[in-house]
Amino acid sequence: MKRIVNFSAGPATLPLAVLEQVQAELLDWRGSGMSVMEMSHRDKEFMSIAQDAEKDLREIAGIPANYKVLFLQGGATGQFTFLPMNLLRGKTGFDYVLTGDWGKKAAKEAGKYGKVNIAASSEADKFTRIPDVKTWKLDPNAAYVHITPNETIHGVEFHQEPETNGVPLVADMSSNILSRPIDISKYGLIYAGAQKNIGPSGITIVIVREDLIGQAVPSTPGIFDYKQMADNESMLNTPPCFSWYVSGLVFKWIKENGGLAGIGERNARKAAALYDYIDSQDFYRNPVAKADRSRMNIPFTLANAELDADFLKGAKAAGLSGLKGHRSVGGMRASIYNAMTQEGVNALIEYMKEFARTKG
Ligand code: PMP
Question: Does 79 count as an annotated binding residue?
């Protein structure tokens, strides 16, 4: 068996220790005589898996008691679609801050339920920075302010929470959740698809302040109503049990690896190594404003785009995969989530150096 170094933006690489544990208990989960895939979600075995996962997530992320943790389906796209109907709460509209394509898509969905105020946008700068918070035109009556703390395609990340003057802050944390310590109390609602820093695709985490749910617009289907899901421990219907289980193992792996503080330090070191190299030469370039660069997704271009195919081919031969940039921006992108090792990042840097030396 030879595993590649996987820089895919998502589904993304998972911790090897977690995969090995899944493999070891695949056919017989802890003496139950069956795989987690075969368990009833109502049996005590799966209930213990589900409850442990929530307990560990609450512990590592420091989730206060007045927040519900939901394990849902529909991906992040599902959540930014269900979010406006759940959180409108008798208001007339929402504030969206656009720092990339995901926020833009989310704003479009919200427009079906109320007036969308684009409080700020960096689209004119091709989403290469976070608009200065002082220039945001926030509506004090908005149902919430929506941000995308890490824009996966553009590699732009918030490094602190914006002040929203009492209006709930809602965040699509799909690509940077659990990547460093976080103050949950600054948010009204956080949602994230699992397939980057949490586990396999299929499950989506929502962390929501209790007082914000229970007022969904009346036409909200029960299955998309956060209050009904909360009241039913996320099991109004059959949940994605296997993804939930693997996510729980990833939470334990985070606990054993220094918690979010330890994870955050390692992520900072990995990103710094790659950015330092990119900034030290002229062949590769990252277009994002330095203060707003992502520690998770690092896009870069080559001096000559005609070399892109060669770069990818050589990378593949060197065991480095998933580096092609998103089709909307081109170039390359290295996604270096929690499970990417420093050795993996170092191998990429060495390959980039060698490629630039021979082709540059
Ligand atoms: N938001 C962000 C920030 C993302 O990175 C992605 C997926 N790459 C999505 C939303 C969409 O996620 P899903 O495919 O789970 O709907």
Answer: no
